């Protein structure tokens, strides 16, 4: 048994919490935090590239792959006609086999014909766009919103009940034409987004 005062222990715990190594849940206790992944929002990024940059092995598991006609709401989001054919691709994104986010992407079929589920399991989607279809991504717009995770999402992301997630909507452009609309549910306990503002 070590002779350490309670005040010293409390101070050490507080410093660990301040540094993000642990977190407290009222009435439940203190828990070890997973490392949070920092994402700079000033430039275009992809999950695959970011995980590799941070020394992680990215994996995408395709949970759902459909080709369908879009409804009016989706057509409005993507600035296309109701009934136009799109891919609907739902993927579980992992880093070192740790589930990080669930993504559902809508991609116009006529711009990227012939993509298969196997393609997306073996190669990053943006790499397919660039290499096979010579697509040049100009910019993307994103919105962020904290959300309560559904029971299905909790199971996929291996989350305890009550841990919030971040909903990210991304619209990706090529020459002002939308080539991707993606809804992402990202683990709130694993991601930290930074924006740098200059005056």
Widest beta sheet: strand line-up: 4-5-6-9-8-7
The helical percent reads 10-25%
Task: Tell me which CATH architecture of the largest domain applies here.
Answer: 3-Layer(aba) Sandwich
* Main sheet record: 6 strands, antiparallel
Question: How many beta-strand segments?
Answer: 10
Keywords, separated by commas or semicolons:
6 helices; Chorismate lyase; 25% helix; alpha+beta; 40% strand
Q: If you had to describe this structure to a student in words, what would you say it looks like?
A:
With 199 residues, the chain is α+β, with helices and mostly antiparallel strands. It has 2 domains: 1-33, no CATH class; 35-194, Chorismate lyase-like (Chorismate lyase, 3-Layer(aba) Sandwich). The protein has 6 helices and 10 strands. The strands form 3 sheets. Strands 4-5-6-9-8-7 form a 6-stranded antiparallel sheet. Strands 1-2 form a two-stranded antiparallel sheet. The radius of gyration is 20 Å and the shape is elongated.
Secondary structure topology:
Blueprint: H1 6-18, E1 22-25, E2 29-32, E3 37-40, H2 47-53, E4 58-69, H3 72-78, E5 85-95, E6 98-108, H4 117-122, H5 125-133, E7 139-147, H6 151-157, E8 165-174, E9 177-187, E10 191-194
Parallel strand pairs: 3-10
Antiparallel strand pairs: 1-2, 4-5, 5-6, 6-9, 7-8, 8-9
């Amino acid at each position: 048994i070590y002779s350490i005062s309670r005040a010293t222990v409390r101070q050490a715990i507080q410093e660990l919490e301040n540094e993000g190594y642990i977190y407290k849940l009222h009435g439940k206790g203190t828990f070890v935090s997973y490392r949070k992944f920092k994402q700079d929002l000033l430039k275009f990024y992809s999950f695959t590239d970011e995980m590799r940059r941070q020394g992680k092995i990215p994996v995408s598991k395709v949970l759902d792959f459909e080709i369908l006609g879009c409804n009016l709401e989706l057509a409005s989001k993507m600035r296309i006609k109701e009934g136009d054919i799109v891919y609907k691709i739902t993927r579980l994104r992992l880093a070192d086999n740790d589930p990080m986010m669930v993504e559902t992407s809508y991609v116009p079929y006529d711009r990227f014909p012939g993509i298969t589920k196997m393609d997306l399991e073996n190669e990053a989607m943006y790499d397919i766009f660039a290499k096979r279809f010579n697509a040049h991504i100009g910019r993307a717009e994103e919105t962020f919103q904290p959300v309560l995770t559904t029971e299905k999402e909790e199971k996929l992301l291996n989350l305890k009940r009550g841990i919030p997630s971040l909903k990210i909507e991304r619209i990706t452009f090529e020459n002002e034409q939308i080539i991707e609309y993606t809804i992402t549910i990202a683990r709130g306990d694993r991601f930290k987004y930074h924006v740098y503002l200059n005056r």
